[in-house]
Amino acid sequence: MGLIEDARDVAREFEISSGAVNKGVKEFIRQMDEGLQETGKSLSQIPTYVTAVPNGTEKGVYLAVDLGGTNFRVCSIKLNGDTTFSLTQSKVAIPRELMVAKTSQELFSFLAKQIESFLKTHHNDHFEEYHQRRKAGEPVTDDHFFKLGFTFSFPVHQIGINKGYLIRWTKGFDIADAIGKDVCGLLQAEIDALHLPVKVAALVNDTVGTLMARSYTSPGKTGTLLGAIFGTGTNGAYVEKLHKVIKLQKMEEQGGYDDSTGNMVVNTEWGSFDNQMSVLPNTPYDDDLDKESNNPGIQMFEKRVSGMFLGEVLRRAILGMIKDGRTELFKDESSGTNDIHSTCTIAEDSPLYRQWGIDTSFLSIAHEDQSQGYRITRQALSKDLGVVAASSEDAEAIKIMVEAIGKRSARLSAVAIGAVIISTGNLTLTAGDAVDDEQKAVLEEEMVDIGVDGSLVEYYPGFERYIREALREIEEIGAKGEKRIRIGIAKDGSGVGAALIALVAGGRERE
To answer: Per the residue annotation, which of 206, 274, 286, 290 is the catalytic one?
Structure first.
């Protein structure tokens, strides 16, 4: 059997049939419902206390800060009321000593000082007016304060729109006395110590922010149903009926929330869907990746979907072929059998032999390579992976496997998207009745709006096309229902989205 057929055999291991897609959707819906009823399930289904999404008519100036790693970002967002906005921002590196400070006060004091500096630079008139009122003893009302959305990308136990207890630090932070404390309260205390006209109105998850940002900028009249991240990681947050969030009533400690909308945004944390592996596809490459990861048995959906893992899945599939003495991948023994008349060699220190050695960007390059003899892929093999003088057949074999791994990721993404759409009843018409055969356009009020962000969905070749192909195969959606699904890029959930959550949390607009 030839090399190309060998590669196709490996590619077939990543195929997901229509039946498997539909089975996955049904199980995803079951796990969604399970997660809404009690904590500790595969799908966390975390109540966010956000009970409304914007419609693009909101106005005002709001602040957002983002502590997501080694940088701290401060933004102000001016909402124009016509689905557009303008953004001003600054970013500063967190000093290493503050990431491991003895007290949380040291870190949060630094953050508050960055907010003060930002206000003096970009909103000095408002800043000075507020302080003059305070000095003169004049009354200061809620309208004199900027509402701030705080994107805090560390594990927290959130019990209210602006209240959440730190569970643990990650990403190199280690400040013991912050564990178990309300992070919004810690930031507000340092803001108040500087007498800044700022109120921490909302604790923000960036996926929820993606939903909010899309809902504000969406071209349609209907609110956005789902915000989803398909990038280094994957997650989704969607608008759920409040009465279905049963575990909210069981929680011992919870903050107040506005129940007048009848809705609540739920953060699915769907990276952990089906950790028990009842329906997710599996290959020897997935198994080995999971066993050697830092969290075996956890985030099993994410390990098959997100950009962080696709390169590693490919690396293990390539190694499997190299080590299999029956395949001819990268095994030209003399220049006579290589179409570029040179012997193919793999460098001893090739990233192929190192865990996480292949970046997802390599998959994008190979997937869209239409050059003669797959010249671009061969150049990437040499430059990025230390595989010198690969043949066009080698490159074609790699491309076949790359396409299969990328397509699997997109089809699994469709399982999550489809499950949310079906579970929430947003395709109320049957797939057969949704659009008349003679009718080219779909009525605006019948559109289901999805906001997406992340490098995979934005840059990976054909990713949305593969998602839509799988959505058409879902029984409750079909070809007609898929036409009613609008998917649009939503940028900057941790900035614009955070500001919009602060707006919703504030419950009022400030011109």
So the answer is: 206
Residue bearing tokens 């912050």: 178
Lowest mean pLDDT of 178-182, 336-340, 423-427, 435-439, name the range.
435-439
CB atoms within 10 A of CB 96: 9
**Three-state SS letters, 177-234:** HHCCCEHHHHHHHHHHHCCCCEEEEEEECHHHHHHHHHHHHCCCCCCEEEEEEECCCE
Report d(CA 468, CA 454) in Å as an integer: 17
Q: pLDDT, tens digit, for every residue of 341-385?
A: 578 999 999 999 999 999 999 999 999 999 999 999 999 999 999
18 is catalytic: no
d(C-alpha 292, C-alpha 483), whole Å: 41
- N- to C-terminal Cα distance for the chain? 71
Catalytic residue (one of 90, 153, 382, 392): 153
Answer for the pair 44, 268: CB distance below 8 angstroms, yes or no: yes
List phi, psi (to 5°) of 205.
-95, 135
Name the burial class of residue 100, with classes exposed (0-12), middle (13-18) and buried (19+) by CB atoms within 10 angstroms of its CB: middle
Backbone angles phi, psi at 164, to 5 degrees: -160, 135
Among this protein's residues, is 153 annotated catalytic? yes
480 neighbors 474 (Cβ within 8 angstroms)? no
Question: How distant is the alpha carbon of residue 298 from its chain centre?
Answer: 17
Q: Residue 310: is its pLDDT beyond 70?
A: yes
The tally of CA atoms less than 13 A away on the side-chain side of residue 259 is 8
> With the C-alpha atoms ordered 268, 52, 487, 207, is the resulting torsion angle positive or negative?
negative
- What distance in Å separates the CA atoms of residue 183 and residue 104, rounded to the nearest whole number? 9
134 included as an active-site residue: no
Categorize the per-residue pLDDT at 334 as very low, low, confident or very high, splitting at 50, 70 and 90. very low
Annotated catalytic residue, options 86, 117, 168, 335: 168
Residue 407, judged by CB atoms within 10 A of its CB (0-12, 13-18, 19+), counts as: buried
The backbone torsions φ and ψ at residue 66, rounded to the nearest 5 degrees and listed phi first, read -135, 110
Counting Cα atoms < 13 Å in the Cβ hemisphere of 452 gives 24
Phi first, then psi, for residue 256 (nearest 5°) are -75, 160
pLDDT in tens, 108-162: 999 999 999 999 999 999 999 998 988 888 888 888 899 999 999 888 888 899 9
Coil, helix or strand at residue 135: helix
Nearest to 281 by CA among 24, 457, 11: 24
In this prediction, what percent of the chain has a pLDDT beyond 90?
75
Q: Which three-class secondary structure state does DSSP give residue 272?
A: helix
Question: Which uninterrupted H or E stretch holds 282?
Answer: none
Count of all residues that appear for the chain in the document: 511
Quick check: pTM over 0.70?
Answer: yes
